[in-house]
Amino acid sequence: MAHVSAPSLKRARSQILEPPSRPTIKACDVGDNAEEVKQRLDNMFMGSDGYDAKLLDTLKACVDELRDGAGGILVVVMQSPGAHSIPFGYLDEKRLSLCFDKFGPNIQHAGFKPILNYFCRHSGSDRWHRGDIEQLQSNLAVVLRLPSSDDSSWSELKAMIGFPKDGAVILS
After folding, report:
1. Where are the beta strands (DSSP E) in the chain?
2. Which of 64, 31, 58, 30 lies closest to 45 in space, CA to CA?
3. Among 32, 116, 105, which Cα is nearest to 74's?
4. Residue scoring higher pLDDT (148 or 21)
5. For the residues of 12-70, what is the DSSP string, one character each?
């Protein structure tokens, strides 16, 4: 049986507890210039191992979608394999997620931006109001060329009334 001195045991523990080395992106104030932000993303990704062009494209699309919006939002963009391993909960019983699934299932879809923009618009209560939903429904009806009068088509949207406009949007 080998004797392990305290200093080497301490060193072994610290090596085990350290997370594996991987590229990280830290939150920082990126300013208002979308092209400058996209250039910074290019610089970060081009110099990293495991460069993922699709992830970079998604991040740039997020910048484009968010640059003209009012309000605030936290957007988390993850590579698909890791996205499903993070435990999280829904503040609205999954209502916003169901709306994205039906009307804007990915960031390139025409319905994505209107939903995101209305989610970012905050009010005194930070909840979905009937007026928000009616405006969003009208906007989506035009963008997606859907009949705005068919109530059954809009049930997911109307189910959000009264629920919070808080939390984050996770894209993978």
Report:
1. 74-77, 168-171
2. 58
3. 116
4. 148
5. HHHHHHSPPP----------S-HHHHHHHHHHHHHTSTT--HHHHHHHHHHHHHHTT--
User: Quick one: pLDDT at residue 2?
Assistant: 42
pLDDT for 11-41, tens place per residue?
333 334 444 455 555 555 556 677 887 888 7
Where residue 2 falls (left for φ over 0; alpha for ψ -120 to 50; beta otherwise) is: beta
Angle between helices 112-120 and 130-144 (to 10 degrees): 160
Count Cα atoms within 13 angstroms, Cβ side, for 66. 23
Comparing 13 with 141, which gets the higher pLDDT?
Answer: 141
Residues 76/171, Cβ–Cβ less than 8 Å: yes
Tokens of 149: 């009068």
DSSP-derived letter for residue 152 is G
Highest mean pLDDT among 61-70, 79-88, 93-102, 143-152: 93-102
User: What is the three-class DSSP state of 77?
Assistant: strand
